[in-house]
Design a protein that fits this description.
This protein has 3 domains: 124 residues, no CATH class; 152 residues, Antifreeze-like/N-acetylneuraminic acid synthase C-terminal domain (Type Iii Antifreeze Protein Isoform Hplc 12, Alpha-Beta Complex), CATH 3.90.1210; 59 residues, SH3 type barrels. α1 runs parallel beside α4. By secondary structure, it is of the alpha+beta class. It has 5 helices and 24 strands. The radius of gyration is 38 Å and the shape is elongated. The two termini are 67 Å apart.
Length: 340
């Protein structure tokens, strides 16, 4: 248990005595005469609190304090409670001096009051430890809700964090943020969890977890030779672990359709994007027919390609008559369709 010394108690409490509305105004005898007599103040050696500030009444044995004095002492803040997992010490000498001043301010003869003050006064904050299971659930929930992957394709493992996550006891809430706005939620994922107790932030925890992602990958259903065009009949789909190769394999049909292979591929071999190429059907300067289509309307014009391209590519095409350049998707070696 780590510990810290409480701030100079006498000075802090003395300021409280001067605050208007806390202590009775001098000269108003009725305010003092109405109080119950107090014969003993017994201070506890070990005190545990469950809120941010420590009041005088919390460090005293309630059996020795009359009800009216409990109300008075409950309104006197003697300092902040320690953080969760830490402790503070109150100086017994300073506390005795303060209690004497307190009684004197109410015209109570302090010499007639028994002070039972231990040599060691320790104040602790009631705390709750957040379990490993809770942090794992927080991490998983954030990944499931924030990642672009399907929940059934995600496997989270090895969730780690540093330190013992102790927080003060109370109503806990939390906020989670990714370490980067560009987080892809695959591989090692780092997030920050801010914990709040009673709407006050009390702890920030860095959490790291391994996120595995599984997805459908296109494989060759038969041996493919270099420069051979791929048809849908040449393909089969299998689920694979993409964690370390999210951008390596073909996972969509448009990535393999109308492509040629750049090297020989064996049967059941995954198709890597680097091994696929879209064959060129247009070269820069080739004449094309521009098609513009809307519901109930189809217009054609002569055009000229401004770059090389394959089927499905979007190229800049110049309208030969108007000399305007528009973007079109390549349909075949003679036709392009204007994009909106």
């Amino acid at each position: 248990m780590r510990s810290v010394m409480i701030a100079p108690l006498a000075a802090l409490i003395f300021l409280v005595l001067l605050m208007p509305g806390v202590m009775p105004v001098a000269g108003v005898d009725s305010a003092w005469s109405a109080l119950e007599p107090i014969s003993e103040i017994r201070v506890l050696g070990n005190v545990t609190v469950n809120h941010k500030e420590v009041s005088l009444v919390e460090i005293c044995d309630p059996e020795t304090i009359p009800s009216e004095w409990k109300s008075i002492m409950g309104g006197l803040n003697i300092g902040d409670a320690p953080p969760a997992g830490l402790e503070k010490f109150i100086d017994p000498g300073q506390l005795r001096t303060y209690l004497v001043r307190l009684l004197d301010s109410y015209r109570i003869n302090s010499s007639e009051v028994k002070f039972d003050i231990p040599d060691r006064i320790v104040v602790k904050r009631e705390s709750t430890q957040i379990t490993q299971e809770t942090i794992e659930e927080i991490f998983k929930k954030f990944v499931f809700e924030s990642s672009p992957w399907k929940r059934e394709d995600i496997n989270v493992q090895r969730v780690r964090f540093s330190g013992i996550p102790l927080i003060p006891t109370g109503k806990m809430t939390y906020e989670v943020t990714a370490s980067s706005a560009k987080e892809r939620f695959i591989g090692n994922v780092t997030v920050t969890v801010d914990f709040y107790v009673n709407e006050e932030k009390v702890r920030t925890l860095g959490v790291v977890g391994k996120v595995e992602v599984f997805g459908d990958v296109y494989l060759a259903s038969r041996p493919l030779k270099q420069n051979e065009m791929i048809s849908e009949a040449d393909l089969e789909v299998h689920k694979m672990n993409l964690t370390d190769a999210a951008d390596r394999f073909a996972t969509r049909l448009d990535q393999v359709e109308n492509r040629r292979v750049l090297r020989n591929l064996g049967v059941h071999q995954p198709l890597e994007l680097k091994d696929l190429d879209r064959p060129l059907v247009l070269k820069r300067g080739d004449p094309v027919r521009i098609v513009w289509e809307e519901p109930g309307l189809s217009v054609t014009a002569k055009g000229q390609a401004n770059a090389d391209g394959g089927v499905g590519d979007i190229l800049a095409i110049t309208n030969v008559e108007s000399k305007k350049t528009i973007h079109c998707r390549v349909v075949d070696a003679q036709t392009v369709r204007a994009t909106r």
